[in-house]
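May I ask you to comment on the folded chain given beneath this request?
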Amino acid sequence: MQLSKTIFGIPLATAEEPASSGLPRIFTEEFRFLRASLAGAGGPEFDIVASDRRIDVKKAAAAAETVSSITGLDAVVCSPALDWWQMRVLAERGVPFIRDERNLWMPFLGASVKMDVSATAPRQLSPQAQRVFTNLLCGAWDGKDAGEVATLAGKSPASVSKYLAELSAVCPQLIERLGRRRLLTSAGIGKDELLERFDGYLSSPVARSFPARVTGDAAALGKAGFLMSGEPALQLKTDLAYDGSLKVIAATNSLVDEAMRAGIMERTESPWDADATVQVLAYGVDFPDNRFKGQVGLPLVDDLTLYLAMRRAAGDDPRLADAIEQVRSSACHS
């Protein structure tokens, strides 16, 4: 790969790292290991873990840590394909990196982070952008162009452009340009890595909840667009025992209002007078889980929606924490 010939205007000399022959094959097959030094008497030496392709950031960090442990030198991950998320992860792990002259972090030389100034900084996804991400992760909208996403989401093209920009700020590879078309794509990134990248920018899909008395049966609730959610859904999807004593149902605000007007349910002032908890969703679930419909009479929220709604609910309960992790894993491997 082509390395910069200078760093901060100082000539950079490189040669093959003598210790590379003793490194694990899993690293040497994917990376080139170089011994680098800055010109001048007593110029500092360091190792470079180089690749000209898209890298597995965890493997690159492990390679840098391994060669550094052998040589005793600082090791720098170098790839022109590093994206914003990968640079952030490397910096958080204390692993120096070079993407290009404008994006590098080498604290042992006193250099500071210079993240891509042309990129929009990632932020918490809006509810509809999160809906698009959910449908991308499950594979349903993978490969759809912006116009198709607008039709599927029932939103204007201008709105969808904003949602795609939110996703691109976190992971630019998700939006591919084909001429004038913009394609929503997982870009070959595994679901585990994709969810890891976005996890910090995702919110609970439950906007609010309230106690209610339900007068309609499960069939009426399902017909009205309600889904089973919360701990009862978690019990059905995981190793937790399902006892049927809890009723947690979820729908968007408009569907909840329609159900109230139709007399299917009524809000109660006290949870003691209620027989259900109603969760009002910030966005609709496009692909509910129908596996248990014959058992409970209505569909369940999908795995990712359930994970995001429950991920802060475990507290000190290890069984509940394990069940939440199970449903997260299911979202990534279904």
User: Anything to note?
Assistant: The mean pLDDT is 88. The two ends are 37 Å apart (CA to CA). The longest helix spans residues 318-333. The longest strand covers residues 206-214.
